[in-house]
Design a protein that fits this description.
About 40% of the residues lie in helices and about 15% in strands. By secondary structure, the protein is an alpha+beta fold.
Length: about 375
């Protein structure tokens, strides 16, 4: 591995000579060249001088600084930059130590490995790495690399020290107006989301791979062989309406179960203790309630009609009212019995009143008869 920058780490009065290596490799990612669609030839870019219109080669290209708001360009040479009063030009100066959580990941830019430069640097290098590991801290400093000064964070990693170039705080844009407001989250939804997070388990870096790169490689191979690539099936997509149902299915899939295997929201385990009410179930419940209300209204309407029809039965004798009240039993059908029960109840009510009148008449007749008997006995 070739070093890209040589300097030193300033740790108090301790100086650690280091070499810098790029920690990332982006050459494995997919990259395309631009071609002329008419003939398939590659389109190349050339550096053209705007003044004379001639091509400029790399060895003739220098640096310049354009004044903001002005078209004036000031030439800047490497010698000019080397004479700048900047102590971090060849030294990474550690300013403080902080907890890793205090560094926002948004600030992290590029990553580099720092290795000891020479045998004399091995011991102070190891000392700094062990101190960072023991105290669980990261070192924050400043360094000038590639013509600019940047913040840097040092942390131990896999026996080495990693340097992360950090963006300056004013380079981080605020998130104003991006996050939604006034969104209510139920406790059941939050618990189910946490259950899904636990069910997914830990990340295995060995299983991570670039599916897009593999698809492009297969596409290129098929074109080289003269065949047509087979288009993969697109996953079924759709708008998620029932959030709880989607979370439940995600938990079951993460736990390896099939849809509907689990009785609870998460198919058993700790998630079974969470009380989950499906939104779909609520909609069904509302429909069934509406249907029950409609049936109840129909029963009331039938009862009113039957009561209206049974009005003349109130003038009949008690025996006629009893026949009207017992008529639902002879129908044999549940629906007929239910509908006639409302009318029968009203009819029997009228029959009971008629019976009560009749009974009252009989009681009065008995009393008068008793009075006559009493008169005869006394006589």
């Amino acid at each position: 591995m070739r070093s890209i920058w040589n300097g030193s780490i300033s740790f108090g009065l301790v100086t650690i000579p280091v070499k810098t290596y790029s920690a990332t490799d982006r050459t494995s990612s997919v990259s395309f060249v631009r071609i002329h669609e008419k003939d398939g030839a590659q389109v190349r870019y050339r550096k053209i001088c705007e003044l004379d219109g001639k091509e400029v080669f790399n060895e003739e290209v220098g640096k310049g600084y354009q004044v903001p708001g002005d078209e004036t360009i000031v030439p800047i040479t490497d010698e000019d930059l080397s004479r700048l009063p900047m102590p971090t030009s060849k030294t990474l100066t550690i300013l403080s130590f902080a907890d890793p959580d205090e560094i926002d990941p948004l600030q992290m830019d590029k990553s580099y490995y720092l290795g000891p430069n020479g045998a004399a640097a091995a011991k102070p290098y190891t000392l700094l790495r062990e101190a960072l590991e023991q105290h669980g801290k990261v070192a924050i400093g400043k360094v000038a690399m590639r013509g600019r000064e940047t913040l840097a964070m040092l942390r131990p990693h896999d026996g080495a020290i990693v340097m992360h170039a950090l963006l300056w705080p004013d380079q981080i844009r605020p998130a104003t107006g991006i996050a939604p407001e006034d969104v209510a989250i139920r406790e059941n939804e939050l618990k189910l989301a946490e259950t899904l997070m636990d069910s997914l388990g830990e990340l295995d870096p060995a299983e991570l791979h670039d599916d897009y790169r593999e698809a492009v490689e297969q596409l290129v191979s098929a074109k080289l062989e003269g065949g047509e690539p087979v288009a993969p099936e697109s996953p079924a997509g759709g708008q998620v309406i029932d959030l709880m149902s989607a979370l439940e299915k995600s938990v079951r899939a993460a736990q390896g179960g099939a849809d509907g295997d689990a009785a609870g929201p998460a198919g058993g385990g700790e998630a079974a203790s969470a009380s989950v009410t499906s939104l779909r179930g609520r909609k069904t419940a509302k429909r069934s309630t509406a249907g029950a209300a409609g049936k109840s209204g129909a029963k009331k309407t039938a009862a009113k009609r039957t009561t209206a029809d049974a009005g003349p039965a109130r003038k009949t004798t008690g025996s006629t009212a009893k026949k009207a009240a017992s008529s639902p039993k002879a129908s044999g059908g549940r629906a007929k019995a239910t509908s006639s029960a409302g009318g029968g109840a009203s009819g029997s009510s009228g029959g009971k009143k008629s019976t009560a009148k009749s009974t009252g008449t009989k009681s009065a007749a008995k009393k008068s008869a008793a009075k006559k008997t009493g008169k005869k006995t006394s006589a």
